[in-house]
């Protein structure tokens, strides 16, 4: 939970405070609407980061924190698949390889936590 929280917080801070630089790097035309959408994306990342950080002490995957694990699984799975699809069509954008791998690793991890079928026991 802490690792996903840190990754999401980093992405959220960059999107929130440097949307123009992201647009320039991506070669997007400067438009206030796109800049605002990137900032909203940053807010979403920061919200998920805070959720994960606050839930890091909970037993995740049980009935009590199931919404946290399912939300993270869905986010990382759909994001990872979207990144993988884009990267497969544009392999020259090698900078997206690292986020794609990170997203897919978190998708697998949260999938195992959510649907693994194993009993997690809290260590005393």
Query: What would you call the shape?
Result: globular
Q: Catalogue the unreliable spans.
A: none
Strand content range: under 5%
Helical stretch count?
5
In helices, the fraction of residues equals over 70%
How many strand units? 0
The biggest beta sheet reads: none
Helices and strands, in order, run as: HHHHH
Give a structural overview.
This protein is mainly α. It has two domains: 1-56; 58-124. It has helices at residues 2-17, 19-26, 32-54, 66-89, 97-115. Helix 1 runs antiparallel to helix 3 (32-54), helix 2 crosses helix 3 (32-54) and helix 4 (66-89) runs antiparallel to helix 5 (97-115). The longest helix is centred in the middle third of the chain and has 24 residues, at 66-89. The mean pLDDT is 91.
Write the layout of secondary structure elements.
Blueprint: H1 2-17, H2 19-26, H3 32-54, H4 66-89, H5 97-115
Helix pairs in contact: 1-3, 2-3, 4-5
Supply database-style keywords.
73% helix; mainly alpha; 2 domains; 5 helices; 124 residues; globular; single chain
In short:
73% of the residues lie in helices and 0% in strands. It has 124 residues and is mainly α.
């Amino acid at each position: 939970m802490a690792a996903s929280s840190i990754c999401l917080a980093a992405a959220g801070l960059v999107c929130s405070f440097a949307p123009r630089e992201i647009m320039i790097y991506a070669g997007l035309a400067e438009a206030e609407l796109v800049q605002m959408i990137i900032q909203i994306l940053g807010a979403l990342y920061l919200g998920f980061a805070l959720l994960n950080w606050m839930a890091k002490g909970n037993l995740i995957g049980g009935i009590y924190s199931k919404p946290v694990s399912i939300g993270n699984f869905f986010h990382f799975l759909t994001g990872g698949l979207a990144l993988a699809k884009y990267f497969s069509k544009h392999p020259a954008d090698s900078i997206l390889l690292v986020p794609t791998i990170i997203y897919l690793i978190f998708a697998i991890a949260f999938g195992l936590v959510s649907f693994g079928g194993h009993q997690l026991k809290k260590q005393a």
